[in-house]
Amino acid sequence: MLKKSYKYLVIAIVNLTVLTILLAIWTDELELRFNDSATLIEIIKIIGFTFLTLIGMRMLVSFFRNKNITRTSFKIKISVLLTFLISSYLYTGYIAKIYSNVIINGQFRRQIAKKISDTKMLNGTKGENLTFIEYQQITKMSRFPTLPAEASNIQYAYDYDGFLPDYSFSLKYDLPKEMKVDTIDYKNEDFTQFKSFEIIGDKKRVTYFESDQ
Predict the structure, then answer these.
(1) pTM over 0.85
(2) With bands split at pLDDT 50, 70 and 90, how would you rate the model's confidence at 163?
(3) DSSP E strand stretches across the chain
């Protein structure tokens, strides 16, 4: 029985290995900066889909027996097809992310990653001298506030220890002098938020801060 099941186990293991390799390719440095649990979550998904493929192939073996199908090559092809169909959700998602993160935007994402470093907090990050397009890419992976397209010389610092919900976020950026900036000054027992600016040459240097602690 074990010998007969061996080929199906090999198919499942090969599928798991290929998915793991694809996962390692698309989870680049920038992705892990802002989604450090991505690898663990996706590994759990891969294991879950692997169990589904094993269950599917077990049902397929019962079908082959009931229909008295004995041709090995045919059974292998159907089993591979079934495995791919069950895992197609992961394959399409991973391949799309490889295309976006590595093929299309690989150099751009590496450029951003070089400007990002750790803070003293466990899960804190900070970035300096970011362009609007670079910062916009970061907001796609985080909940950072959006900025007007005219923003430049952007720097931020986000501190979050990973255990408590407390966090602090600071942001500085330049805007053209003529642009209007709404100031904020709000504070209660749990949440603080403010925004101010100063004129430096022909720019407005905007400072934004929020904290929940």
Answers:
(1) no
(2) low
(3) 116-118, 125-130, 152-160, 167-176, 184-187, 191-200, 203-212
